[in-house]
Design goal:
With 412 residues, this protein is of the alpha/beta class. It has 14 helices and 10 strands. The strands form 2 sheets. Strands 1-2-3-4-5-6-7-8 form an 8-stranded parallel barrel, surrounded by 7 helices. A two-stranded parallel sheet has the order 9-10. The structure holds 3-hydroxy-3-carboxy-adipic acid and copper (II) ion (CU).
Length: 412
Amino acid sequence: MNDTGQPTIRDFHIIESTLREGEQFVGANFTTGQKIDIACALDEFGVEYLELTSPVVSPRSYRDLQLIASLGLRARLLTHIRCNRDDAARAMEIEGLNGIDIVIGIGLPLRKFSHGWDVPQVVEKAVQVLSFIKDQRPELEVRFSTEDSFRSPREDLFRVYSEVDRLGVHRVGIADTVGVATPFDVYDLVRDLKRIVRAEVEFHGHNDSGCAIANSYAALAAGAAYVDTSILGIGERNGITPLGGLIARLYAVDPALVRKYNLKMLKKLDEMVARFVGVDIPFNNYITGITAFTHKAGIHAKAILNEPSTYEIIDPADFGLSRYISIAHRFTGWNAIKWRAEQLGIQLSPEQIREVTAHIKALADEKPLTLDDVDTILWQWSNGHHPSEKRGEEIRWPRHRGRSREPEAFKR
Ligand code: HCA
Ligand code: CU
C-alpha cells in the first residue's frame, strides 16, 4: 500500500489482444489491411505486447501473422495456441515472433467435454510442448495459461502451474474465461499463485458480469505484471477488459502510471475498431464515450467552471479531448449561463443573468432547448428584447439558428 491507501502497482505490461481475442468478437472479420492498421496504431500508442490469432486458424491468419511479424514493430509479438505440438510447430515457423501464449483448460467441464485429459495428462502435454519450444526456439517468451481458472480446482491449477514453472516459463496466466470472478477472487488467486511460482503472472478477464476492469486492477494490485486487453473490450460474447477502461482505472490511481502510453491516440484507436467491427463507441465508454466529459446540472457546471477536478478525475486534455458543459435544460444555473454569455461577448448585469436563467429554466420545462436557442435568448436579452413569458407561446428563432443539435463543444 502507498500513503494514500492504494495498493502499489509495480511496473506492468499490456498484452493487447484485439488481434486475437478481439478477432473472436462476432462483428470482427479483419482484413489484412485492417490488422496492419490496428497493429501499427497500437504500436504507436505504446502497448508492450500484441497478441495475434493462432497461425493454425486459417491460411490468412498464418500469412497475416508472418506479415505483421515482419513490420519491425516496437511491441513484442505473441501468438496464441492450444497446448499441442502441431500448433507450436506452426507458430515457430514465424520469423520475428517474440513469444507464444499457450492455453489449456483444466476445469472439470472442459476436461470432460473438450479435450478429455486428466490432470497428469495435462501436465504431460504441457511438458512436451514447452520442452519442444525451448528446444527449437529457446529465445521465445513462453506463457502458459489455464482456461476458466476460477472454476478449476485449486489443487489442479497449482499442480499444473508448479510443473510448468519448474520448466522455466516466462509467465503463467490465469483466465476468467466466463467472467465469473470478483476482484476479491482475483486478488486471492494472484497472491497465492505468486507464492508458488517464480514466473510473472498474467491476467485475462472477461466482462460478462461487468468486473473485467476491476478484476484486472485487482490482479495488478496483487502483483500480476501483465494484463490482457482489447480495444473497446471486443472479444467472445461481451468481451474482455477494454484498453481504454484499464487506462482510465490506472490513471485514476495515478496518471504517472499511464504516461508511458501515447494517450492522445486512444480516441483514434476506439473509433478505428468501432468502424472495423460495425459498432458505435458506447455513449458511456471510458474516456472516449460522447458523454464522458459532459456536465449538466447547474451545481456541477458551476464547480467545473471554477475547478474541473471537482467533478473530473481524468483531465480530458491529457487525451486530446475537451469537456462539454450542457446548459440548455431545466437543470441549468446562472453560473453556466453567465459563462456562456461571456463566451459570446454579451454584456449582461448580474440581475439580468439571474432573470434570463429563470426564463431559460421555465422555457426548458415547456420544450426541449438547444444551445442555439439559449444563445438566441441571450442575444435578445442583451438587445433589450425579452421574449414573451406567456406559457406555451413560441419564440420565433432566426432561421440560421434553427439547428436542432447542440453544436460545437462548450470548451474550457
Ligand atoms: C478462449 C480462450 C481465452 C484464453 C485466455 C488466455 C479465455 O478464447 O476461450 O490465453 O489466457 O478467455 O480463456 O481467451
Ligand atoms: Cu478470452
